[in-house]
Amino acid sequence: MPQLLLMLIIFMPIVCGVGILTLRPFGSSYFKPITAGATILTFMMVLYLGLMYPTAAITLSNLHPTFSLALQLDNMGILFTSLVSLLWVFTTFYTFGYMDHEKNHTRFYGFFIIALGVTLGIGFSANLFTLYMFYEALTFVTYPLVVHKGSKEALTAGKKYLIFSLFGAGLALTGMILLAPVLDNYFFAAQGKVLLGAVGNGYLLMVFLMMFIGFGVKAAIFPLHSWLLGAMIAPTPVSALLHAVAVVKSGIFALTRVTYYIFGYNVVKEINIIPYLSILIGVMIIVGSLLAVGEKNLKRRLAYSTIAQLGYIMMGLILLTENSIRGGLIHIVNHAFIKITLFFCIGTIIFMTGKTSLKEINGIGKRMPITMGCFTVSAFSLMGIPPLNGFISKSHLVIGALDANMILHAVLFIGGAFLTASYLLPIVIAAFLKQPEPEELKSAVDGESIPEAGDDTSSLEPPKVMLVPIVTLTVCSFILGLFPGVVLNLINQIITTIL
User: Fold this and answer.
1) Cβ neighbours around 315 below 10 Å, total
2) Which residues of the chain have pLDDT under 70?
3) Model confidence, pTM
4) Separation CA 211–CA 207 (nearest Å)
5) How far apart (Å, rounded) are the C-alpha atoms in residues 121 and 454?
6) Residue ranges of the alpha helices (H) in 357-484?
7) pLDDT tens digits for 97-114?
8) Distance of alpha carbon 448 from alpha carbon 21, whole angstroms
9) What is the C-alpha to C-alpha distance for residues 308 and 291, in angstroms, rounded to an integer?
């Protein structure tokens, strides 16, 4: 039963997506119920499997010990797949409202639901080879979502996404090949698989850096991050998935598996990765934040923010203290909830008004009080203000840096909070405190003229199918901030096994 369920969770969304694409000539009335049903059922199965069979495992193909395809569930997989499947449900319903007036619905929803199955395959992978196969599949099934608009700009962004992803894949694969002589197999183990002394530390350091940077491309590791900015041409629900759930968090998940389940804590500590990666990741945090401050396009500003926030997660993982790892792992969850909410809010502004720039949204908060109120809460959370969930992440990261006697890293985390405020607060200030320009807006919904921005009596709130996910996700930020034990209990179990 658990083995069947493990396969069903992955392949049911893939089959549903292929079904949507196959039935495309027969109309599009079926794609919404199939998509909604598949995402909700998938989340329920993930939850049931994690609660009832937390160690489920199955081998799909065992032609060679090194290249076997196998699935398993452990605490790290439960954390990742629960997060992915839950946020995919919210994204699905938001998408129903946002994409109503877009073209090529069946193609979009087909690949949208296939991507869910592939992402869960990454989370359930029992070994590095299986993870790599699903990891690469994710590149190709998300490509049609990135280029959905079909414009020259979208195709250019898609090409860049493929080039960067394949380069990272090649680098990671090279590292895997070089690591093969040191391993019996690629299966994940809580204490890692690599043994010290089999080869020189310099060799292990080289291979680790190749794999970390290779898998890190999907996590927008600096300086291989620019694909993420180009991908902003995609519809907002895709941007939200790329930045909060599917692609970048799959990259972070792969980095976690490589660091702690292949190399292991003791080996990573012995080969002394901190001096090499902390500088790179520190630059990633600072540059991402500074570029966000100077960016006027709202979606691109959030894209730069994602680069910086992913740096927080990576830094937490490589500082190798209990609190830093805890902060990095919980920020995987907290950043996902925060960033998807921010993107949904900005997407709602674009959907309802067609406005995409900071200078165009003066006074918008008066006409979108719920949407911009949720944006404000999420912005405060990303800054690390209590009692929101972002504070839990940032506090553990700072304490973890101090535990490692990394004073500069602690200062970086604290300073990063001020940089976060410097690129998010201007949006809040423009929305609520600045006077709108006396110009006519065009509704992105039907193209009809709508009242001037100064008319406070006219609401621009989106349809409920879009607004409810935004409000619910914002409430989740409060819940995860007030009751962090919901996630920390699972994370503490992960840390106990890997340290």
Assistant:
1) 29
2) 24-28, 65, 438-457
3) 0.92
4) 6
5) 49
6) 364-367, 369-383, 389-403, 407-432, 464-482
7) 998 877 777 888 999 999
8) 33
9) 10
Shared domain for 303 and 396, answered yes or no, is yes
Q: Which residues of 245-266 are buried (b: 16+ CB within 10 A; e: fewer)?
A: bbbbbbbbbbbbbbbbbbbbbe
How far apart are the C-alpha atoms of 233 and 101, rounded to whole Å? Answer: 16
User: 390 with 305: CB under 8 angstroms?
Assistant: no
Q: Are 257 and 270 in contact (CB under 8 A)?
A: no
The two most distant CA atoms of the chain are separated, in Å, by 72
Query: What is the C-alpha separation between 308 and 384, in angstroms, rounded?
Result: 14
Q: Does the residue 280 lie in any domain?
A: no
**Which of residues 221, 241, 272 is at a domain's end?**
272
What residue has token string 């995402």?
39
What backbone phi and psi angles, to 5 degrees, belong to 222? Answer: -70, 135
Alpha carbons 45 and 29: distance in angstroms, whole number? 26
CA distances in angstroms from 298 to 162, 212, 318, listed in the order given:
24, 30, 31
For 198, list phi and psi in degrees, rounded to 5: -65, -40
DSSP state of 223: T
Q: What is the pLDDT of residues 193-237, one digit of tens each?
A: 888 877 889 999 999 999 999 999 999 888 888 888 888 888 888
Residue carrying structure tokens 């608009």: 149
How many angstroms separate the Cα of 53 from the Cα of each of 11, 57, 82, 405, 461? Answer: 18, 9, 14, 40, 42
Helix (H) or strand (E) holding 302: helix 298-318
Q: Which of 10, 37, 215, 213 is nearest to 109 (CA)?
A: 37
Cis? peptide before 223, omega within 30° of 0: yes
Q: Which domain covers residue 434, as residue numbers?
A: 294-499
Task: Give one DSSP letter per residue of 47-81, joined into a string.
Answer: HHHHHH-TT-EEEEE-SSGGG-EEEE--HHHHHHH
Inter-residue contact 391 to 260 (CB < 8 Å): no
Provide the pLDDT for residue 439.
56
The length of the chain in residues reads 499
Residue pointed to by tokens 């002589």: 181
Q: How many CB atoms lie within 10 A of CB 134?
A: 23
Same domain for 7 and 37, yes or no, is yes
Residue 466, phi then psi, degrees to nearest 5: -95, -35
CA angle 465, 249, 37 (to 5 degrees): 35
DSSP run (H or E) holding 257: none
What's the structural domain count of the chain?
A: 2
* Residue 287 belongs to a domain: no
